[in-house]
Design brief:
- The chain is 27% helix and 29% strand.
- The protein is of the alpha/beta class and 370 residues long.
- The strands form 3 sheets. Strands 4, 5, 6, 7, 13, 14, 15, 16, 17 and 18 form a 10-stranded mixed β-sheet that branches.
Amino acid sequence: MKTPQKADAVVLGAGAVGCAIALQLARSGIAPRVFDRDGIASNASAFAWGGLSAHFGNGVPGPMTEHYRDAIAKHIALYDELSSSASNDWELQPVVSLSLADDETTANQLTADVEWMRSQDFAAEMIDADNLYRLEPAIRDGMVAASLVEAGWELDSNSFTKSIATEAKRGGAIFADGCAVAIETRGSSVNGVKFADGSIIEAPIVIVATGPWTSDIAGVPSLPIKPMKGEIIRLERPGSDLQNRVGFGGFNVGRKPDGSVWAGTYEWDRGFNREVSDEGRNHIMGGVTSYIPSLAGLRTIKTTACLRPVASDGFPIVGASSAADGLFYANGAGKKGILLSPLMAEWTADLVLQEISPPEIVLPSRFEDI
């Protein structure tokens, strides 16, 4: 048996949430050991679109609106803080979103959305077809109106995650590959983590940020989290159009800073299948060419697939586990994982270090089996 090593804290998962937690802990004087079975930013955080929005999503309108806004503010503050750092290269930028309507019923729905957004001080308006086509002439004929929202941001999720990991390392965090298989306990408290290679890291604090793979770890109560698959197609399209994010029928298209045009996506339950598929590609291309026909036939630069960890009620799970003192969760944020990562990290660090509870809406105690 290998001799156990010791750590102040162990973070399981090196996606955006796990890396952000490592940074928060390191800045608070705790040197965490961070483990991931596949490496830093190797799953959903590597391939996410990187959208940061508070004007739509689960819990909007509703209890998550202000949390999403808070998270955007934290991203901007962190980006500004690290602006002189070599690791700060995640291309944070504001974006304009267009949602299209090709009939009056949809236009009325968008109008109601805009009215709500404006009541919450989001920059939003309805535009007519003439103004829409002046903005994006590649959109097919037949649109009657669109909503235009200037309230969102985007970043490169892969670069963002790796950048904050670099900052965490500078603060003393240690990153390593490792597949956790069991939580070690002593009495009613956490004592550490056992890994697939037989090694054990002893620590009084273990934070589970492993996405949908949480159920693989013995000693962690079953979390109601599903892996929801999505794909994004990166297309080569000369020119400078599609600077806006154009959405219709559940699909989205937009040009990224490197000039590529991204098209996506869907949310399917395919278990733990992370493979790029003809089914997914055909679904996405059928959707986006239905409103931007000129996307058909373009060269595909790359297609990515990932699994988003989605809690059964759509809200993240952040808080202490009832299974053992010192065991914590930071998981289940789904499509909002990149957005919420700095906020989930703050909630987790406040709980671990100061016993300040996260908002009730994200606490694991809302699920009876935890």
